[in-house]
Amino acid sequence: MTQTLVDQMTFEQAMKELEAVVGQLERGDVALDQSIALYERGAALKKRCEEELKRAEEKVAAITLDASGQPTGTTPVEGM
Fold first, then answer.
1. Which are the contacts of 46, defined by CB distance < 8 A and separation ≥ 6?
2. What is the pLDDT of residues 35-78, one digit of tens each?
3. For 10-42, what is each residue's pLDDT tens digit?
4. Contacts of 30 (CB under 8 A, 6+ apart)
5. Less packed terminus of the chain by CB within 10 Å, N or C?
6. What is the distance between the alpha carbons of residues 23 and 26, in angstroms, rounded to a whole number?
């Protein structure tokens, strides 16, 4: 697992690595010191994902709400 800087990862990259970290921790076949390092990396990846989701939510709100916070009148796409 490449130790890419978390703040340079896309949401997808962070989620993929986070899933791998969780998998390793769930198997329980790593030493305590490695488990702690994995936990810390996982916490950083989780934070990155949360930041990216918040950024996406803000973009959606900017698109769908006018300056007063009211819906712009757009209708949701059917099936979504």
1. 18
2. 999 999 999 999 999 999 999 998 888 788 777 878 776 555 55
3. 999 999 999 999 999 999 999 999 999 999 999
4. 24, 38
5. C
6. 5
